[in-house]
Amino acid sequence: MKRRGWILFVLTLWLGAAQAQDEMPLYPGAIPNSRNAPDPERVEGRETGGRFISLTSIPTLTAFLPKHPNGKAIVICPGGGYRGTAIDKEGILVAQSLNEDSITAFVLKYRIPQDLTNVDRSLAPLQDAQQAIRYVRKNAKKYKIDPHRIGIMGFSAGGHLAASAATHFYKMADPNEQDTTSVRPDFVVLIYPVISFSPELMHEGSRINLIGENPGEAEILLWSANQQVRPDSPPAFLVHAGDDGVVPVGNSLAYYGACIDNGVPVEMHLYPEGGHGFGLYNKTTADDWMGRLKNWLKKF
To answer: Which CATH class is domain 2-299?
Structure first.
């Protein structure tokens, strides 16, 4: 019965994703910062969350197109502790919900940091996030998108990636990139995000997977997004549960505070319960955070 339930979950996703384009390679040519090694990617099913894709080394982007696009677009980064991506629960389902509000969505299956396939594993996910924004902006006309209304959204470790894209846009993560298309997102959406790699707030697995077991203080500072917010960082929307036992709510509080200190517009919604990884639906409350997000997005 458990396997049957998972199959029905995936079938529902497939039927609801009729407007999705084929999954496409993120890079038109060679993948930067990549080693010549066998692709170790694995796909596993989870009872309540659809597919979990681990150890990705070949990044892809999948577009979800609304019937009547309103010009806004969001790149979605599913979470997974920098070990994998919850591609259905925090990717496809979210894209479909955004389509209902006429927002064009792109689900990013980014590279998982690993020494086997990356020259510098810490840079690989950010390179992919920047490339995704670059692709969407360069193809804005094709997708009926306003190139100045492109945001990025992330869940958990995907939230760390989205926050990194929102605070490191002034420098290309790929030092060999010659394309000058802006990779600054016009807004950022962070759902129970990993933000800080400080000992007090870190999600240990995400930190180890991205920058190793014994990072120096400079690396911790560099990859703590709250420490990288500047006055020109994009407006932010945050959601977190106070009882999150995996990624402490202090992560969102730290990013919110950094935005306030730098004069960056920010909106945050905190729930007393919900734990970690609730995806679109926090079952402990009748409040709909996605509805609040769609309302916030009306200003863009």
So the answer is: alpha beta
